[in-house]
Amino acid sequence: AAYADALRPYGAGTRRHVLNAVARSGNLQEASRLYSAALAAGDTSSSLLNALLLAHRESSVITDATDALALYSNAVDASDVVPDNHTLKLLLDICDRHNVLYKAISICDEAVSKGVKLDPLTVNSLVRYSCNRGYVERSYGYFCDSMANGANTMNLHTLSRL
Fold it and tell me: What SUPFAM superfamilies is this protein classified in (predicted)?
């Protein structure tokens, strides 16, 4: 709470930078406080969401993806935050770790249907995680879509799995 109180008079950019630093340390509790303070100050953005998702990914105390998925849903539904590739990549990492990859894949598919263009890193993650889970046809579909949209050839290690 000390960070949140001390940052109250500063702008959104400063709050986001501090939140990112705290998130990278994996301190989910303090990152959550900073996120709440930023929301209370009227700051809603994908970078705030990404910082808290980063804290979820880096935290050693998280036992499932439920909180991260709820956070994403609340930010998108209540705050009209538009997910970006970093958001999607973080969700893929979190959901794969907790064996609910299909939920992150569904979110990625929904984002694409709403106009988000997947970058090569996100596509690589989709292909790799999908292959690891045995969704080979889906992996190949992501690869083909990416190539049809003009992406460069992806990581050779990932390609070897297809």
Answer: HCP-like
Q: Domain ranges in the chain?
A: 2-86
Rounded to two decimals, the pTM is 0.85
Q: How far is CA 96 from CA 39, 58, 64, 126, in A?
A: 28, 14, 10, 10
Q: Name residue 130's amino acid.
A: S
Q: How far apart are the first and last CA of the chain?
A: 48
- Rounded to whole angstroms, how far apart are CA atoms 124 and 89? 10
Walking along the chain (162 residues) 10 residues at a time, the average pLDDT comes out as 57 78 89 86 85 91 87 88 94 94 95 91 91 90 85 68 66
Cα angle 134, 112, 100 (rounded to 5 degrees) comes to 35
Buried b (16+ CB within 10 A) or exposed e, 119-134: beebbbbbbbbbbeee
Q: Which DSSP symbol is given to 135?
A: -
